[in-house]
């Protein structure tokens, strides 16, 4: 009989589960001395001149030692990556993988400008930003202090990070910038007349075929099911914390996007 933590683990969608598992195992390997952070960080010279190509991946997996900051990052990574994968990317595993690939590639290019060695946190911020823009009517409660709409979540976390670390959050801003570019060209630009309905970030067929075993029949869901996944404190509320009507048009659009692919 499966214990609760095992049940929860296997309920997490495959891409999120794989990423979080790899991140925890990487920090564990550093903690016990199997590898050093100096072997994991991203550096253009070491990566391409010394042929240490694993750094293209490992810099996204190391979130630091097992501290409160590590738990904070894991919580937001699991929560918002899972809600994205189960929400607007439900039944679209290949599309979600492609999102992570595009975001990671963009962050690797930007890291040269900002001298960022580890890019896991900016990537998590990208996912938070995209989720927040696709769920504008959801109200969130931050540490019991105040309630705000989901689109403000990245900026609330940005301010919290600034107060907590007293360091300008360059990496978080990079994540927001990459997330906004993806959101614009996936959710806004295709609806403009000049775009002709084209999606610039459409997932290549070779990626779709790689995931065709996991990307299939999950698109036939009702919009109200999507809202149910967010439950509890994330239900859409007005300023007086009264329940708002469901934005069926937005939810149906997310489902239709999955069906079109």
List keywords for this structure.
261 residues, mainly alpha, two-stranded antiparallel sheet, 12 helices, 3% strand, globular
Describe the protein's architecture and organization.
There is one protein chain. By secondary structure, the protein is mainly alpha-helical. It contains twelve helices and two strands. The protein has a two-stranded antiparallel ribbon. α6 (93-114) packs across α9, α7 (120-134) packs across α9 and α11 crosses α12. Mean pLDDT is 82; it is low at 216-236 and 245-249.
Secondary structure elements and their pairing?
Layout: H1 4-11, H2 14-31, H3 44-49, H4 55-58, H5 68-86, H6 93-114, H7 120-134, E1 139-142, E2 146-149, H8 153-165, H9 170-188, H10 205-210, H11 223-230, H12 248-260
Mean pLDDT: 82
Q: Helical element count?
A: 12
Distance between the termini: 38 Å
Shape: globular
Task: Report Rg.
Answer: 19 Å
Beta fraction: under 5%
| Biggest sheet statistics | 2 strands, antiparallel
The strand count comes to 2
Structural class: mainly alpha
> Regions with pLDDT < 50 over 5+ consecutive residues?
216-236, 245-249
Summarize the structure.
By secondary structure, the chain is mainly alpha-helical. Helices cover 58% and strands 3% of the residues.
């Amino acid at each position: 009989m499966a214990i609760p933590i095992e049940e929860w683990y296997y309920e997490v969608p495959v891409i999120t589960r794989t990423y979080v598992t790899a991140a925890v195992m990487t920090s564990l390997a550093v903690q016990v001395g199997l590898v050093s952070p100096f072997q994991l960080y991203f550096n253009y010279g070491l990566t391409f001149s010394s042929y240490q190509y694993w750094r293209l991946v490992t810099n996204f997996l190391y979130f630091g030692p097992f501290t409160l900051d590590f738990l904070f990052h894991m919580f937001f990574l699991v929560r918002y990556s899972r809600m994205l994968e189960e929400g607007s990317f439900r039944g679209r595993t290949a599309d979600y993988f492609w999102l992570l690939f595009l975001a990671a590639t963009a962050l690797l290019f930007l890291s040269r400008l900002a001298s960022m060695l580890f890019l896991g946190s900016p990537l998590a911020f990208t996912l938070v930003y995209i989720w927040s823009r696709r769920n504008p009517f959801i109200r969130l409660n931050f540490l019991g202090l105040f309630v705000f709409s989901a689109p403000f979540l990245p900026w609330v976390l940005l301010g919290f990070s600034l107060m907590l670390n007293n360091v300008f959050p360059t990496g978080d801003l990079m994540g927001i910038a990459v997330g906004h570019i993806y959101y614009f060209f996936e959710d806004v630009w295709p609806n403009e007349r000049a775009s002709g309905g084209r999606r610039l970030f459409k997932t290549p067929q070779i990626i779709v075929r790689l995931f065709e075993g996991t990307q299939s029949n999950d698109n036939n869901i009702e919009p109200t099911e999507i809202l149910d996944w967010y439950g509890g404190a994330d239900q859409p509320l007005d300023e007086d914390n009264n329940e708002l009507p469901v934005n069926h048009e937005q939810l149906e659009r997310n489902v239709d996007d999955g069906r079109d692919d």
